[in-house]
Amino acid sequence: MGGVDDGTARENLLARAVRILEAFDADHPSLPVAAVARRADIPVPTTYRLVAELVDLGLLERGSDRRVRVGVRMWELASRSSETVSLRDAAIPFMDDLHAAVRQHTQLAVLEGDEVLYLERKSARGAEVVNITRTASRLPAFACSSGLVLLAAAPVDVQERVLASPLEKLTPYTVTDPAELRRQLAETRYRGFAAVRGWVHVQASGVAVPIHGPGDQVVAALSVIIPNEEGRVAPVVPALMATARGIGRALGATAGPTA
User: Which CATH class is domain 82-251?
Assistant: First the structure.
């Protein structure tokens, strides 16, 4: 019985350590320990103890201001074997070219659960539109162009799980009707790209295409953020598709999006 209790205790400690690491995001890259405790919903004394252990392991770092942040050791471990690292490395040179050509925010994303995780974002200085996403940030998969592309290629059970979950509007224009979203997914599969206007930010449109990997499976989405204006989608689609094909070839794909 004691072994079960010990195992449960260890599991709880591990879960709490993960919650502490999840307390940090793009808007909160460093935090006082008390704020970590509040965001992780863990008692302050326990947070202090776990933070000290994570600092000793190099997974967190403590600054001269006593605030803590994710440590370089965490980045090192994540970079050793993650498939997303090779995907990102393959995509960046092509994204640089696309970014220079369209002069708009350019993004690389994968499906992670019911959300889109952005692996890379190229910001365009002087771009005409705001982009709220950042590298390592997330958006609901149903609510953005990258998510539609990735869901359109996902198994039906994944699509239905997402559509059965609570669908909250990010703007007044975000589509949350499951029937309309199914139509959007079918249209995305047919056209080979997704375009949404004002779903994430009222002044922005997102246009995304799939990236194929080995076995011609869709492994990621490539997108650009453009002004929410008539006539802005069609000009960027060929460049997006050509770039996605280049990334796909670098990953070992034999197929890719076609205009």
Answer: alpha beta
